[in-house]
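Progress against Task 2.4 (sequence-to-structure conversion) is shown through the following example record, which the project officer requested during the mid-term review.
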Amino acid sequence: MVTGSCYLIEHEKSRFLVDCGMFQGAKATKELNYGDFPFDPAQVDFVLLTHAHIDHSGLLPKLAKHGFRGPIYATPGTVDLAAIMLPDCGYIQEMEVERKNRKFSRAGIPLLNPIYTATDALSMQKLFRPRDYRESFIPAQGISVMFHDAGHILGSAIAEIRYTENAKQQKLLFSGDLGRYGQSMIVNEPTDIAAADYLVVESTYGNRLHKGGPEENAPYLADVINKTLSRGGNVVIPAFAVDRTQDLLMMLYLMQEKGQIGRNSIYVDSPLAVKATEIFASYPQYFDEMTTTCYHKEGRVPFVLPNLTYVRTVEESRQLNKHKGGAIIISASGMADAGRIKHHLKHNLWRKESSVIFIGYQAEGTLGRRLIDGEKKVTIHGEQIEVKANIVNMDGFSAHADYQEILTWLSRFKKLPQKIFVTHGEEKSSLEFARLVESRTGVAVKTPQIGDMFELTLSEAAWVAQDKSLAQILPDESILAEINTALHNLALTQDYEKLLRVRDFLRQVS
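C-alpha cells generated for the chain above:
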C-alpha cells in the first residue's frame, strides 16, 4: 500500500528504522495504527526519516511513547516540518476520538484512546538530529549515512546507507518519495545517484503517467476556477498543508500575474498550512531556480498576495461556510479524510454551483478517492451529503514521480543495484512497475508484503559462482527431473512471482 512506510534494518549490533509512518485510507487500513509494532521500540537504536509527510513520520510519537529513546536523523527542513505536523496529527486524533467517544458513551460502547496526543508529539521532538544534504554521518559502528535531495517536498531525502559486511562495503539506498523532473513549483529535481548494491524504491504512480505538470494544467485549472466563480459557486481545494498548498499558492500567484484568473478572494484554512508556509519561506536554499528568481532577483514573495487570507482561528473558519460564492478555499487534509476541509465539503458538495478540485494522490478508501471515483452520496460527520458539485481531479500537480520519471531516475545510475525492492504503492501499481523495471534493467525485483523479511547477502549469481559443487551436480539427469517436477507443482499454485525468481536463478546457474 501507499501509506504506513516503515522499514526495520538489522546490522551486526545495530537495529534501526527508515521512516515510521501512519497508515491512511480505509477503516481496515487505519486499524493497523492501533496494533503493537512488530518489533520492540526500545530495541531500536535510531531512525532515518526521509521526509515529514505523515505516511512516513506519523507513528514516530507512538514509537517514543512505547520505549524508543534514540536519535531521529532528518534534514533540517524535515525536522522543522515534522515539529509542526506531528503535534497537529496528535491533536486531530484527540478531536476525532473525543467526537467518537461522545457517541460511544451514549451507546454504552467502550471508549477509545488516541494513538498519541499532541503533548506526546511535542515531548519526543528532542530526539530529532538535523543533518544537511550530502553531510556524511555515522549513527552506529560500521554504518555511515548521507541524505540526498529527493525533490518531493521541502527537505525530502533519498537515504544512502553504507555498511561493512564481511570486510566489504555495501550500499543500501532508500528512494523515499521521489519528486518530478521540471514540474515542481518550488523544490529541486531528484538527485542523480551513481550506484547502489540494493535499492528500495517507491511506486505510488508505478502504473500511471501524469498528464503534464502544473504549468500544462494551469489553463485547465484557470478554466474550472473562472467558470465556477462566474456561476456563483466556491472553488474548494483539498490540499496537503505541506508542499501542495505552497505549490498551489505559487501557481495561483503566477496565474494572477498572467491574467489567467481574476484577483478573487483566496483563503488558506489550515493553521498547519500557515505554519508550513512560514517554514518554506525560511528555506530559500532548497528552492529551484524559478522560485529563487521570484524571491531574490525580482523581490516578489509568492506566498503573500493582496487577495490572500490565512485563516487561523476556528471562528474564522466557520465564517467561511457563509460564503455562497466567489471564494477559492484551500484546506487540509489533502485526501479530505480529516481536518477543516470536511466542513467546507459538507457546505459545498451539495451545491451544483461549486467545484471541488483534487490536486494530489488520493489513497484507497479515503473520502477524496471515493469522490473522484464518482460516489453520489457521502457521509460527513454523520450526515449524508448528496454530491452535486463539479468534481475535478488534476494529478498533474502531484509531487510524486510517475513511472516514466522513476525509470528516468533509474537510468541515470552508472551501476545498477543487484536487487531492487518495489514498495510504497497499491498492489496493482507495485506489481506492474516491478515487471517494468525487471524487463528494462534485467535486475531481480521484489515486491514485498507487510512483514516480509530479506537477508541482504551476495547476489544469487555470485553465490552460485562460488559454489562449485552445485554447478557439478546440476547436469545429473535425476536432479533435473526433480527440478522439473518441482516447477510443475509450483506452476499449479499460480505463484508466478516465485516461478520468475526460480527461472532467473536457473538461468544464472546454467
